[in-house]
Amino acid sequence: MDKKLKNILMHPTAKGMLLLTPALVALFVFFVIPIFRMFHLSLFDPHFTLKYYIAFFQRPVYIRVMWITVKISLIVTAVCLLVGYPFALILSRAGEKLSKVFLVCIVLSMCISLLVRNFSWIIILQRSGIVDSFLMKVGITHRHVKLLHNLFSVVVGMAEILLPYMILPIFSVLKSIDPNLPKAAQTMGARPVQAFWWVTFPLSLPGVYAGFLLVFIMSLGYFITPALLGGAKEMMISNMIAFQVQTVLNWHFAASLSMILLVATLVFYTIFNKVVGLEKLEDLGV
Amino acid sequence: MEAEAKKLHVIEIVFGIMVSIYLIAPIFVLVPMSFGPARFFSFPPPEFSVEQYVKFFHSGPWWRAIRISFEVAVLASFFATVLGILTSLAMRYKIPAKGFLNAMFISPMIVPLIITAVALYSFLSKFHLVDTVPGLVLAHTILTLPFVIITVSATLKGLDPSLEQAAATLGASPLKVFFKVTLPLIKRGAITGAVFAYMISFDETVVAIFLSSSHAITLPKKMWDSIRFSIEPILPALSTILILFAILMLVLLEVLSKTRK
User: Fold this and answer.
1) How far is B241 from A239, CA to CA, in rounded Å?
2) What's the number of domains chain A is made of?
3) A277 and A156 in one domain?
4) Higher pLDDT residue, B46 or B136?
5) Is residue A254 part of a domain?
6) Measured by CB atoms within 10 angstroms of the end CB, which terminus of chain B is less buried, N or C?
7) What pLDDT was estimated at residue A280?
8) What is the pTM of this model?
């Protein structure tokens, strides 16, 4: 009996499962069950009902929140792409020293506390803040400009935080492109701009897809920046969930909103997995 | 530098520098401001003063928040590292539904934080764990676990299994093989993972907003309240200290990745 048990335990699969158990139990109890309870809350009150989902699609307020969430996410992703792609390109071509400086700035920005970064945008953009008083001093405007608690400040703040997630995937793809390819195109008569658009750019598309999807997905569920830098008009779905839980105390509705956000996120991650591969996520953190 | 100037156009260099400044703008604004007066905010500060730092160092509630954040981050990163090492080791064996399990373990990183926060708030309140250090530790362990698994798995990939096999053939017990062979070989991956976990937990805001209210207040939660409801004049000083902390972490991660090679 003892020997039999020992044989079973020495089996590789059994060993693997044994090692897996602690984390699996922790994950199940403190992650899967809580989220499943939210799912349950969204559908039962106390009997099965779809009213919390139907409410979402019927009331204009909630459709507006959904629309704002998608709009802000798209704008932030577009800004990150427009700034991040050229930056990644410069980074990939810069000399050793300069590229090192740029990379340190990227990683350092990722290390700084999120609240510190949001707070600094409040200081920069507030009424009589750095930008406002500069504009008045230079004489571009004679009245205070509203730069904070609107779409502009939310986009500026979110793009600053999410930009590295656009730059790094594009940079890593650009870095892996054989530099002889655009050179070959140029020897065969292509101008540098043509060599870029016909050779380098198409080859860099996997990085663009990865960065685009990553930034878009992270934007969809963003909470801190719209809450601190946005006004009432910039309430995103995450902020609506918090509002339902903390102020309205409507747990069922908060749960249905959470499930809608979760499904949207998972759908886009599935696309990410198909187009880029989930394992690419692992290259980012390290 | 000359070679760089040849390769890149001046406009490109200027653009690169501008984006870099945008990325670390908080440093340029908050550090000078922290040496201004502690009564009002203005940039550039009208006079040099360390008033904010003096106020901060004498503030009991802020130090309490730092202590709680420190406790939570140390405990959470410890648990996440232990669980993460075990899970990464397990993933080397033949396991049913491995792809699914892998996706499951990464999922706390994927699910929007607000959902995790609200779900855990509702779940942990059943066990009176809301607004306690253990509740925060549990939440942060789950949240940081994916990062440890990713870093440790990456190190394990480069590990030669014949080393462990040799030790086992020579008669070492599985535990001995782990502590004498495997662990020293994956040490750097594990430390990097633990540092990541610590940094994430120490800065985690969304879950903390829900899980701490009046008793176990973490530093991000206290900063959040302060920014939202009453901007305290010590915030630039605190931000400067946190920026310094970020630079230290960056150096630490750099040292860790250097010694790996």
Assistant:
1) 29
2) 2
3) yes
4) B136
5) yes
6) C
7) 73
8) 0.91
∠ CA A157-A159-A165, rounded to 5°: 135
B248 lies within 8 A of chain A by CB = no
A90 reaches B (C-beta below 8 A):
yes
The reply to whether A36 falls in a domain is yes
List, for residues A102-141, the tens digit of each pLDDT value: 999 999 999 999 999 999 999 999 888 888 888 888 888 8
Verify whether the Cβ–Cβ distance B23 to A22 is below 8 Å: no
> What's the CATH number for B60-229?
1.10.3720.10
Residues 12-51 of A with CB under 8 A from B: 12-13, 15-20, 22-24, 26-27, 30-35, 37-38, 41
Residue-wise pLDDT for B171-198, tens only, equals: 888 888 888 888 998 998 999 999 999 9
Task: Tell me whether B18 touches chain A (CB under 8 Å).
Answer: no
Closest C-alpha to B151, from B106, B184, B111, B110: B106
Least Cα distance to B19 among A211, A132, A98 occurs for: A98
Q: For chain B, how are helix, strand and coil distributed in percent, rounded to 5?
A: 75, 0, 25
Percentage of chain B modeled with pLDDT above 70:
95
Indicate whether A169 and A241 sit together in one domain.
Answer: yes
Per domain, the residue ranges of chain B are 1-59+234-261, 60-229
* pLDDT higher than 50, residue B2: no
pLDDT: is A19 or A1 the higher one?
Answer: A19
Higher pLDDT residue, A151 or A12?
A151
Say which of B33, B105, B196 has its CB closest to residue A27: B105
For the ranges A19-33, A233-247, B247-261, which has the lowest average pLDDT?
Answer: B247-261
Q: Which domain holds residue A68?
A: 60-285
Helix (H, G, I), strand (E, B) or coil at B253: helix
Q: What is the CATH number of the domain that holds A277?
A: 1.10.3720.10
* Closest alpha carbon to A178 in A203, A150, A202: A203
Cβ atoms of A35 and B115 closer than 8 Å: yes
Q: Which residue of B has its CA nearest to A156?
A: B22
**CB atoms near residue B187 (< 10 Å):** 13
- Counted across chains A and B, CB pairs separated by less than 8 A come out at 257
State the DSSP code for B42.
-
Q: Does B244 touch chain A (CB under 8 A)?
A: no
Pair (A6, A120) in one structural domain: no
